[in-house]
Amino acid sequence: MSSIAYEPKRPNIATANVQLPAVKDYEQVDNEIAATLAPTKAWFASLLVAIGCLLLGASAWIYQIHQGLGVAGYNPPVMWGVYIITFVFWVGIGHAGTLISAILYLFRAGFRTTIYRCAEAMTVFAVMTAGLFPIIHIGRPWKFFWLIPYPNWRLLWPNFKSPLVWDVFAISTYLTISTTFLFIGLIPDIAVLRDREKNPIRKAILSFLSFGWRNSEREWRHFARAYLFLAAFSTPLVLSVHSVVSFDFAMALTPGWHTTIFPPYFVAGAIFSGIGMVFTIIIPIRKWFNLKHYVTLNHLDAAAKLCLFTSMVVGCAYLIEFWIAWYGGVKPEQDYFWNRVFGQWWWAAWIMLTCNMILPLSLFSQKLRRNPTWLWILSIFINIGMWFERFVIVVPSLSHEYEPWQWTTYSPTWVDYAILLGSFGWFFMWFLLFVKQLPVIAIAEVKEIIPPRMKHADGHHAHGGH
Amino acid sequence: MMQGMLGHFKELDSTVEAIEALKKAKLGDLTVFTPTPRHELEHAVDGPPSPVRRWTLIGALSGAMFGYWIAIWASEYWPLVVGGKAISTWIPYTIFGFEVMVLVGALSTVAGMFVNSRIPRLTMTVGYDPRFSHGDYGVWIACAPEKHAQAAEILKHAGAVEVRGER
Question: What's the structural domain count of chain A?
């Protein structure tokens, strides 16, 4: 027994500063998390609503394909509208998942343990949703594959200097790696479900998905190494993806867009919006799935601090944009920013500033950081505010370029709104299906937090984790 | 060698004790099952470092090279001449080098994990029990039948709640 009392070579990731006092043993973890998989009437009702929204959006898209892009609200030269706004919005939502699962993993932030699975799944479905919008936006969706470089009979290749081609590489890589990261983390948990399953059909499916995982030390050793490298790859990837998305704007000589601040500004905004959506999702889940003793107030408090920090970074970027316009001395740029806040688009800009800069300051209060109801309400404001941030970036710039004859307005049509609503239906349909098929909390990582059963409870303390 | 003894443990320290005793007795190769990774077991088993890192490095380098190559080759093959701009431009093409490096590097990491972990596996093979994913620990020692008794004795002495021979 002498070897059990030693100092671990490296700090434990899952247990760092995290306690789950109401979770006593491994069996409780399995039983309580597996219990969340039983479908309920409320879940079916939510799924029906999501599918209904999706069908509405799909119908609007079919109508648009039939009638042409004229049924959307484009008004030259405002030829980027709700679809590009919503594309950037969903890509942004997809960033918090990788931040929480990969970046916080590398930083040994233990509070990620019980929320990262939800955030990772959210990332995958958000990027799936985002990927639809450039295809919707091009109007002839059957030609989207022209953006992909492949040998073809036309002997044509895409323009590798175009930010749109950079986007194709960045987004498709991000979707692939996020999905891989989510699935690799799920393998040990699927093995737990497989070993509990009595239904032979479900057991066969789970056996297939778990790849015959059997929890051997060898498997865990390679798993831990692979997981670390995936996290190390995902971290710069998440920073690069929204930087590349920001280049769609920053490479254009348009007032308000052509600025070097865009990559860090977009990345911070993306992480902020993603954390907002994590709150929107995780707070109802912890309540309805009886997981309050897993996703504790301490976890929410820590995530709220991250939310506050990113809000302040975003707020700083908003203010610096004005400063750059003033200090740069370029008249169209100055006019654009004045028009943004006090002119034509004041209402959108003030929704953005209120939701993203002012309301999150409430999180300086610990009482509010530990109030799930307030966090959920705030998260809705953040979601709205971040959609409007992209509106404010896209529309005011295009509607107020250099020449007065270019100045115009923009109003989305019912088709734009229906497709926007459909995107939420698409996202939540996948998420709802996910939460009833696979564990929303990482079973194996939560077990690392729980003290293992010991024969000798006489001061030999165990240190777990990979 | 697919014959051996399986010890089933409820406690972590008992499992560590069994691993150390079996290694000392040099009866055969060990496989340890644990519901969650534990440093205690990692130290007791003292396995070699994972070679997954080599897969990662090779994949990442290959991906970076391919990402640069596809952008440069396609630009030279189908030149889109813009005044004052080079046909192949290194700075934007670093985006392709980076993205494909991440893509291939990450996928080869997963491939390395699969190959080294010997998954996908069609059957659970001998020495596995569903309780090992739930909350219990297992120690499987692959050894010849004449050593079964000694292995069983060590496992029981360490605190195994169940010991059984498998083949």
Answer: 1
The answer, yes or no, to whether residue A128 has pLDDT greater than 60, is: yes
pLDDT at residue B126, rounded to an integer: 63
Q: What is the mean pLDDT of chain B?
A: 91
* Of B74, B107, B134, Cβ closest to residue A160: B74
Buried b (16+ CB within 10 A) or exposed e, B43-79: bbbebeebebeebbeebbeebbebbbebbbebbeeee
Domain end among B81, B96, B117: B117
The ipTM assigned to this model is 0.94
What is the number of structural domains in chain B?
A: 2
Do A465 and B50 make contact, defined as CB atoms within 8 angstroms? no
- pLDDT per residue over B96-125, tens digit each? 999 999 999 999 999 999 999 998 987 766
Which stretch of A273-287, A363-377, B113-127 has the lowest confidence by average pLDDT?
B113-127
Domain identity same for B68 and B96: yes
For A112, the domain range is: 80-140+164-405
A110 pLDDT tier (thresholds 50, 70, 90) = confident
In the numeric block, which tokens belong to residue A439?
């564990």
**In a shared domain, residues B73 and B27:** no
Q: Taking a C-beta distance cutoff of 8 angstroms, is the pair A189, A442 a contact?
A: yes
- In single-letter form, the type of residue at position A421 comes to L
Domain membership flag for residue A27? no
Instruction: Let me know if residue A50 belongs to a domain.
Output: no
pLDDT of residue A457: 66
Tokens of A458: 């006489």
CATH code for position A199: 1.20.1630
Angle at B46 between CA B41 and CA B48, to 5 degrees: 130
Task: Name chain A contacts of B34, Cβ cutoff 8 Å.
Answer: 215, 217, 220
Q: Which of B56, B95, B134 sits opposite A26 (nearest CB)?
A: B134
